[in-house]
Specification:
It is built from 12 helices and no strands. By secondary structure, the protein is mainly alpha-helical. The protein has 2 domains: about 5-120, no CATH class; about 140-205, no CATH class. Helix 6 (about 65-85) crosses helix 8. The protein is elongated.
Length: about 200
Amino acid sequence: MISARLMKSLEEEGFSLDFPNYASNEERIIEILTEDNERLLLALPLLFQDNFDYKRIKSRLNQKLLRKLNSIILITGMIFQQEKIERTNLKGIIKEHSIKGKISKAEFTYYYDSFKEFKKNKGKEEESILKKQISLRGGLNLNQALAKIYSPGKLRIMEKIFNHEELSNTELKYYYRSIRPLILAILNEDMRKYLRIVEESKKYS
């Protein structure tokens, strides 16, 4: 088996191997549980963000692993409550199968801190990928479009924010007063639909 350290090192050089993907979320969950690795178990709350078939997983586990699964389901339910995540079937699984148990504060904190850290890392990775895509695909077009909307001074402030550079107090006040309202207007889905209709309708006028 290829070591994780070697694969990570090769990926940093741009090399990658194609591995077969999992057929379902249930298969990933089952494999993590059967690996019997405490560090890997921290990934389960991330996978529970997608719907999964509890009965299917349960049928493949012994009693020890089933207890572990139920414990992490309860912990994840508490995490989702804190984070206001409601798009999954986790709450229904807990209720339907009467999953109960005591979770210590230390155990909850351990999983919750890890969950927030993983989500933060994923956000940074997605932002990095988005920046690369912007740079590779649409740098010139983006700059031209922004220049039609924002003044050079506003663009300089937005560039600093995009690159995670610190703003002065004056720049920060200016951002909230003059830049952010326009950003929120552009991001408004109803306005974007309205402008699309206007743009399409002009062809027939």
